[in-house]
Design goal:
By secondary structure, the protein is of the alpha/beta class. The protein contains five helices and five strands, in the order βαβαβαβαβα. It has a domain of about 70 residues: 3-Layer(aba) Sandwich (Rossmann fold). It has a five-stranded parallel sheet with strand order 2-1-3-4-5, with helices on both faces. α3 links the parallel β3 and β4. α1 crosses α5 and α3 packs parallel to α4. The longest helix is centred in the first third of the chain and has 14 residues. About 30% of the residues are buried.
Amino acid sequence: MRILLVEDNVEYRQLVKRALLEKIPHGIVDEAADADAALSLLKRATPDIVLTDIGLPGATNGLALIARIRRKGPQPPIVIITNHNLPEYRAEAARLGANDFLTKGASTAQDIVSAVHRLTNGHGT
């Protein structure tokens, strides 16, 4: 299973990556710190799922990244993982095609792994 993890906080990104690889031992986690890097990775390989923060550095935030992914080819499931747990963000993420919305402070690493399994039907585990 190939996972694209888009998160600007290096420590949090590494924590999530470790949790994913512990539970999905044959998984591949591509990492991006911003939307531009994520879009570049998407041109090289299609992930089975995308995990992205909303607050990303640069001109393109996580919500705009979802919109750009949804306008392109393959449509992997997308999970928002953010500190910005606001109703307007949830509504916009859903409107743009996000499949799940997790809050960093309330969601554990296991919650993230469970969302990946659920949205990919456990493929690649």
